[in-house]
């Protein structure tokens, strides 16, 4: 069977997965249940893999079926948007847009951008998820994922939307008790507040024009930037975090920056999206809007 001949069967498969039953899917497709069952069986035979586990009471997707369903829903969504765009080039953006990003980037800046976009495009349903875990963009069905640092997946597209300068700091009380380090080596004698977020695990510095890494040691670890800030404010130790977490506290004098002369290059922040011939207009719009407005968002959304 040629690839294009799979399309009707794939459409039926998606409807079965969405409905959770052959009976309901057949009603929605306005075909007989037996015909629908034959379509799915033929698709499984053509692909050489089982997509559904059928019992007398329920139906569920296999792992292969789940992967195919996620990819098909994305593809059918892009096709629908392409058709709508061609038929109505001046129409507003619509459909669903799923974005996932780390804590403060999502809670403050991406969420604020999404709110503004929702007002501009009320027909567009935006879903912003915040998590510190590593996301499989394709397998989990997201349109955009925000990532930090170097990218290692060449199968995806990415656009750098801004960069995060990092600052090393601690509370005045901590420095009063333990002294102020004036070199990177002296950090060895201090309790460093460690990030479990992979791009921030090693501390990066610039020395004589070269970028170096320092592996911090200490009694306190978290994957949450705000939690690390709070520990620093309580005098637990020294932290190294993006400046956006720290600016308000530094301006208030509750945190004191050190080792400023050894600041490394800012950490790049990327919006990553699937590598396909047709990038949905909603994805392009969201990335463009965020990139164009991030400096303003940082000003109006102090941490």
TrEMBL record:
CDD domains: PBP2_CrgA_like. InterPro entries: LysR-type_TF_proteobact-type (IPR058163), LysR_HTH_N (IPR000847), LysR_subst-bd (IPR005119), WH-like_DNA-bd_sf (IPR036388), WH_DNA-bd_sf (IPR036390). Keywords: DNA-binding, Transcription, Transcription regulation. Transmembrane segments: none annotated. One of its GO terms (biological process) is DNA-templated transcription. GO terms for molecular function: DNA-binding transcription factor activity; sequence-specific DNA binding. SUPFAM superfamilies: Periplasmic binding protein-like II (SSF53850), Winged helix' DNA-binding domain (SSF46785). Belongs to the LysR transcriptional regulatory family. This is LysR family transcriptional regulator. It comes from Pusillimonas noertemannii.
């Amino acid at each position: 069977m040629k690839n294009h001949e799979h399309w009707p069967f794939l459409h039926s498969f998606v409807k079965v997965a969405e409905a959770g039953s052959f009976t309901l899917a057949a009603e929605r497709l306005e075909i007989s249940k037996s015909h629908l069952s034959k379509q799915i069986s033929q698709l499984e035979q053509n692909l050489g893999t089982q997509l559904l586990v059928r019992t007398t009471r329920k139906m569920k997707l296999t792992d292969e079926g789940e992967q195919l369903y996620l990819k098909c829903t994305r593809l059918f969504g892009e096709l629908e948007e392409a058709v709508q765009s061609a038929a109505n080039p001046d129409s507003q953006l619509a459909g669903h847009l799923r974005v996932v990003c780390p804590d403060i980037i999502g809670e403050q800046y991406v969420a604020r951008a999404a709110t503004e976009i929702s007002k501009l495009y009320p027909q567009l349903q935006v879903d912003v998820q915040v998590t510190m875990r590593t996301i499989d963009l394709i397998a989990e069905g997201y349109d955009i994922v925000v990532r930090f640092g170097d990218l290692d997946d060449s199968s995806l597209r990415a656009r750098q939307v801004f960069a995060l300068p990092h600052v090393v700091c601690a509370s005045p009380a901590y420095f009063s008790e333990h002294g102020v380090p004036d070199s990177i080596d002296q950090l060895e004698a201090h309790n460093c507040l460690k990030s479990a977020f992979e791009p921030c695990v090693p501390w990066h510095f610039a020395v004589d024009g070269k970028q170096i890494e320092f592996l911090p040691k200490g009694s306190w670890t978290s994957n949450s930037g705000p939690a690390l800030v709070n520990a620093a404010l309580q005098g637990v130790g020294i932290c190294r975090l993006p400046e956006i977490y720290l600016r308000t506290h530094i301006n208030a004098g509750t945190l004191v920056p050190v080792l400023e002369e050894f600041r490394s290059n800012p950490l790049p922040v990327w919006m990553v999206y699937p590598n396909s011939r047709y990038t949905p207009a909603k994805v392009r719009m969201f990335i463009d809007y965020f990139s164009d407005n991030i400096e303003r968002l940082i000003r109006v959304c102090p941490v």
